[in-house]
Amino acid sequence: MKAAKQKQILIAGATGLIGNEVVNSLLVHGYKIVILTRSALRNDEWLKNPNISSIEWGGIFTNWLVREIEKSFAVINLAGENIASKPWTRRRRMQLIRSRLGTTRALAKACHYAEKKPKAFIQASASGYYSTSTKDIQHETSSQGTGFLARLTADWESVAQHELPDNIRLVLIRTGVVLSKNDGMLPKLVLPIKLFIGGWFGSGQQPVPWIHIDDEVNAIIHLLHTETASGPFNLVAPQSINQKDLTKAIAKKIRRIAWVPIPAPLIKLILGQMGKELLLSGSLIDSSKLTKTGFTFQHLTVSKALDSLL
User: Fold this and answer.
1) What is the CATH number of the domain that holds 161?
2) Range of the domain at 152
3) Hey, which of 54, 90, 147, 185 has its CA 20 to 30 A from 27?
């Protein structure tokens, strides 16, 4: 369904891996985009596009933010520091918390004060919300897990749920590992495998809830347009795969061999809690709630996803 031309979407986190592709897709659907950014845009194509404007924003509540929200059909909040870019020192954890909770709180407050409310609020979240297990399948109604990532994700969602006005449709997108050739986990896995030094992490039996970047973006647009969709949705592919099999699938695709595991104690020594939670743990996650809304995945298996990316 193509949206009415020139409806405005306000988006935070547009310059990240997912946000960049979401903006491009929204343009195809005929929207006008207003990007909230911490620094000036550098994308030449976006700068030349009359349907894109940007506002430098420090992530705090302001009166002009209220005015922009009053003009917007929907708000998409993808803002947040990269969870895996730096070890989780105490300072880094505070940065991760502030960049998520503070931004979400400011947007929710602006929505509260807006006389004309947006129809929908699409809020980023993560599959890290759930308990880690190699057996139990997690659904949107499953309880939250333990650890820093689960607490951070739950608190992130809680801000949106409790501070956003009830008459705005809220969608929480619990995103898994996004496979993209441009950024994220995939290029970081591919490089060492190409150099014959890549391997799986620890036992390799930990699940990797993954999704192709195209399906991630299409799911966000689908949920934006599906007026009956609300609450949390798991944005992960239907096929489950463990870390060892993912590594071997990548190696096969680029005609390399991956046969040496990276020991868990070494990962914990170098990366600490971040390594334990992001690399050595995982969840089996069900996405049938999403497909029941009419969404169709283009990339059902890792093999087909890698065919389009490598």
Assistant:
1) 3.40.50.720
2) 8-176+211-235
3) 185
